[in-house]
Amino acid sequence: MEDFVINILENYSYLLYLVIVVWTFLEGETFIIILGALASEGRYPINVTLVMVFALAGSFMGDQFYFYIGRRYGTPLLARWPNMAGKIDWAFRMVRTHETLFILTFRFIYGIRNISPFVIGMSGISRLKFFVLNFIAAALWANTFAWGGYLLGYALERWLGEHKLAILGGFVAAAVLIGVVNWLKRRRQERLMAEGKLRNPGAP
């Protein structure tokens, strides 16, 4: 990922903020963290405040789009992803029990970010409420990763010098690995529960 980001900065810097919007429309935490860390170096013309603003815009617009898709086409779309039934059921439970908190935090929960706006759109939450909470959540998310990457990069620069990107990449890889392991554990638990229900069809 670091090589990809540096390639953009060195060869397509004029497209940087457009790439941020597109990337964060889809997901993009790692991309934003690395940009924040590189901004702390001063080696590239990166404005961390603009990184935050464009990350906010991309994340906000992406989840508004998914929200309306879920509101309009949610049921037939989710029916195409039977392997995600466990995540979808969990997201619905969270919307029903912790509606506001879930909207503010789903971006930070590995494995369910992309499906959550669909589920929220299907749940009947008002457009205005989602718009306001989604903007607040996007602002929290963008500031967390842009400025978090910047401060982490600054600290690593002081302690580790030229090796900071390698260390940062290690941190990111470790975070992703932990997320994947947790996701696999959750999938295994869901599969075991489903198999148990199949063996005991009379179970509640």
Overview of this protein structure:
The chain has one domain. It is 79% helix and 0% strand. The protein has helices at 2-11, 16-26, 29-41, 48-78, 85-97, 99-105, 116-122, 127-160, 164-199. Helix 2 runs parallel beside helix 4, helix 3 packs antiparallel against helix 9 (164-199) and helix 4 (48-78) crosses helix 8 (127-160). The model has no long low-confidence stretch (mean pLDDT 81).
Give me a quick take on this structure:
The chain is mainly α. It has helices at 2-11, 16-26, 29-41, 48-78, 85-97, 99-105, 116-122, 127-160, 164-199.
Distance between the termini: 46 Å
What is the H/E string? HHHHHHHHH
Class derived from helix and strand content: mainly alpha
Please state roughly what percent of the residues sit in beta strands, choosing from under 5%, 5-15%, 15-25%, 25-35%, 35-45% or over 45%: under 5%
The helix content, as a percent range, equals over 70%
Radius of gyration: 19 Å
- List the domain count as a whole number: 1
Number of strands: 0
Q: What is the approximate shape?
A: globular
- Average of pLDDT: 81
Q: Quick one: biggest sheet?
A: none
Number of helices, where a helix is a run of at least 4 consecutive DSSP H or I residues: 9
pLDDT < 50 runs, ≥5 residues = none
